Amino acid sequence: MIGKMISDLMIKPGKSPVFETPEKYNMEYEDIRFKTDDGVTISGWLVKGNSDKVIIQSHFGVQCSRSGFTVEGKGRMEKSLWDRDIPFLKQVKYLNDAGYTVLLYDMRNHGESEHCGWITWGKDERKDILAAIKYVNKHEQYKDAQIGLLSICMGQAASTFAFGMESEMQQFSNLKTMISVQPLTYDYFVANMGLPMFMVNAGSKYSKNKRNTDLTGDSFLPYVKDISVPTLVIQNNNDPMTDLNMVKQYYADLTVEKEMLWLNLEKKRAAAYDWLGNNPDPILKWFEKYIN
């Protein structure tokens, strides 16, 4: 059935293995678990640095886990994102070397976190980022730390939904800043995959009727105005899976101190994710500006 096939491609869990650990990068860490407000168990790592500054990294969706993206086990369409592994522990390493403690976790239905339904492109996953912040704030060693968010693709969608839909986000006085990497709404992603509209519609209908997941309505864009911390937006000019006008609208709707960093990279969606691990200077400069 075409509808099921398209729905599986977009929202089915289980394509995001955890394929390496911080031990490979000689970082001290501990395995952690915490629960969201709706009772989902989230798995992650706490990579240990200074106790007064913490970065929470959230990854992109469906094909990714806390450790990043691996081509192993992926099909042709998934491999079109990038043709080699993208280890997110590379940016964790330079952040940790700069003194940051880094909490990185698998969103629900990804990696080793609890599989509890279907991927919702950030709307339900917002509860995971909220739980991660609460975990830091309740931790005896890190409860007084300043927090920054490194929110990547669906991770930034989850963060944006959280700012708009979770009132507690506005009450975290120690949440200081966010880096938003390649904002992407579901509709633009699907449209730019080049699928015939009848296939897109079939997938959306199946997701809604069979999996109770409606991805055809408003995305996170109405909540951008609710983001309450200084935000750096990073976007590849040559990203083939988005609409740059949508990204520009996201940036325009931010009402906080903000900067836009345009990258001129290869014409692949994941080029910017690969760039992230190899270019520490703009990332460290932004976080150092607000976390001190």
Please provide a written account of the structure:
Helices cover 34% and strands 19% of the residues. The protein is built from 10 helices and 10 strands. It has helices at 2-11, 76-79, 89-97, 126-138, 154-165, 186-191, 197-211, 244-253, 271-278, 280-290; strands at 29-35, 41-47, 53-58, 68-69, 86-87, 101-105, 146-152, 175-181, 231-236, 258-263. An 8-stranded mixed β-sheet has the order 1-2-6-3-7-8-9-10, sandwiched between helices. A two-stranded antiparallel ribbon has the order 4-5. Helix 8 (244-253) links the parallel strand 9 (231-236) and strand 10. Helix 1 crosses helix 7. The N and C termini lie far apart (54 Å).
Question: What are the SSEs and their pairings?
Answer:
Layout: H1 2-11, E1 29-35, E2 41-47, E3 53-58, E4 68-69, H2 76-79, E5 86-87, H3 89-97, E6 101-105, H4 126-138, E7 146-152, H5 154-165, E8 175-181, H6 186-191, H7 197-211, E9 231-236, H8 244-253, E10 258-263, H9 271-278, H10 280-290
Parallel strand pairs: 3-6, 3-7, 7-8, 8-9, 9-10
Antiparallel strand pairs: 1-2, 2-6, 4-5
